[in-house]
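Q: I'm writing up a methods section and want to include an example of the input and output format. Could you take the sequence below and give the corresponding predicted structure tokens, formatted cleanly so I can copy it straight into the document?
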Amino acid sequence: MNNKTSKHVKKASALSVFAFLTPFIIIIFFSFLFFVMLLGIFTDDGFDNADHDFGDGNSNLSDEVLGYRSLITEYAEEHGVPDQVDLIMALMMQESGGKGNDPMQSSESHCGSVDCIDDPELSIDKGIEYFASVWEQADERMELALQSYNFGSGFIDYVEENEGDYTLQQAIDFSAEKYEELKHTGDYGCVRPDAIMHDACYGDIYYVDAVLQYYHEDGEFDGTFTMPLDTMYITSTFGERTINGKPDFHNGTDLRCKGGITEIKAMMDGEARVAPLHSSLGYYVSLLHNEEVITRYAHMSEQLVRNGDKVKKGDVIGICGSTGNSTGPHLHLDVIIDGENLDPQTYFGF
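A: Here is the clean output for your methods example:
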């Protein structure tokens, strides 16, 4: 074989190998892209506040929602729920922020199709009418009524046939069943990335929490506070739990954060009380908001305020850490009212 022929053979062999490998290279490339996309959705740091509709962490109602208070009050009285004006405003805030021609997103409950309402007052009238109906059917149980506004009144029947009251698990199970029944229509997709793992893509399984972040009962607050972390990912809730096989009562809420990096913010205006290293709480800051209300932020790596400092809502008071009795970086948040620890999630509605 001469040199010229040998070169042609080598070139042909190289082209054959390239042609053989090309499909595999393409598969590997797109598999890598898919993995990166999944990594963006299911991140270890939880879900951004935008995914959970916390916005900037402030529970204020928008100017648009506040502008509808008089109309909401009028129709709440007309439909027999005059005491639920604040709750309805929180519901509107979650539905639309008060924007658009259907701020209560009541088209589907009114006429069975999306976008059939193009008048804000009609939206408020029909939205409150529907809210009043599920409120009554739910025997005025707030969480059950709210989730039913999102899912439909069939959720009330579902709950009554099962445990008899709203739970997040009931919402997940109902959503999964309805999605399995209706997904062939192509009309439903997961509102939140974390619903995908449950295959619960009918409605919003976290609707109750999303609404209640804008609502505070009995006027305990003026509706203005800031979430302590930019990303709220709960790792341990308030109440009974098991630690190393033994029962334990957790008197606060734990939130995931990055040690030495994540900033911790004051939830409301207050006066700082800074303690030396505590065997259990590590470095922590307590904020006195009035004579009765204290919030406490524990396991910090660094305290950024001094004893007696006057802090404003949103001020950075410390950095996430794992000091004290801690198995990893996190924020332990306490709410103390008249010396008693209460559930931060219930009290602040996040």
